[in-house]
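Hi there,

I know you've been waiting on this one. I reran it after we fixed the sequence typo, so this is the corrected version. Both the input and the resulting structure follow.
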Amino acid sequence: MSESSNSFPGTNPFINTKLEKKSSFQIISEDEEFEVTSPTDMTFRQANAGGSGNASAGGNAFDEGSQSGGHGSSFFGQSPFGTGEDEQDEGSLGALPTGSVQQGFPNNYALGRRTSVSAESLNPTSAGEEGWTPPRHSKTEDQLARLKTAVSGNFLFSHLDDDQFKTVLDALVEKPIPAKGIKVISQGDAGDYFYIVEDGHFDIYIHSAGSVQPGPDGLGNKVGSTGPGGSFGELALMYNAPRAATVVSTEKSTLWGLDRITFRRILMDSAFQRRRMYESFLEEVPLLSSLKPYERAKIADALDTIKFPAGATIITEGDPGDAFYLLESGEAEALKDGVSVKKYRRGDYFGELALLDDKPRAASIVTQTEVKVARLGRDGFKRLLGPVEEIMRRTEYQVDASKSPVSA
């Protein structure tokens, strides 16, 4: 086999070496005239739906027989487990034409690795159409208070709005653990629930084999423990992967579980609605009017929502700049040496000049009413707002016309 045909992490054991050809890699540049819309846009979904199943140039790589010349299901037009007849057909194909779907992964990609778990296919745009109703399980006020504390501390739910947060709390179902030594989840199994600990304690084990093994040491090594307010099991539900650890009770305990469908539906709908809300908001921001829908969609994905009460300080004069802000609702003002130099309302932005010039904040931003802001961190600011940098540099803040402008 020639050196050029070898690929990381090794050679492909399923390819006939006599029929190998040199790889022909092509760089496909995006046409500036082609406008890529956001996935939340109706035209995007309609263009990518339908019976044809085409997802990109070259058709759907996952359609059975669509690219394999009638030889059955294939991936990117060829099966690594094909028969000799398939290999002969492959050898006669020649170089791929420009625009064709090409293999974008190494020959031995994922061979011998642990596979994922198949799960339900959910469409975030059709919750109402499917008639899905989240489950509701009654709880005492004391239980709700404890669960609210536990859920709010979990990064998965930190971005949910009040209604979505309440849906999570209502959907949690009590799971009593009657004794010590009960395996709640086992490494290698499919995930069905995410758990929050109300009381009791649990030990966490990981086995190097990737699953529980027979024998006294079958659980593997103890890597940690969790108690009241802790949680576990979310990764298997997020990524449809087998359980990464075994969790065993050390005493009589009480858990609250969130089932996989509710877990995925709430998070999926939350992410979709959040993006759609931000895209609508960003369309109203004059600064971003020159950006393409796809560019605004990327900004929407990078934003975080933060609420401030009236009289709160969002930015302090003299502090280093670490974020850029867009005002979603409410009113705020910029103060330079205690003097008001600018007012802000919905759609206005601030905090940009300290990031552009890597200088300390030259003014403080104080809320006049309760406000909600969209925050974009330094890295996202540098990466996503390059096209409007010159517009931001023109912004001036001044007390009146007789005084020189100051940066915010």
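Quick highlight: Residues 220 and 331 are 56 Å apart (CA to CA).

Best,
R. S.
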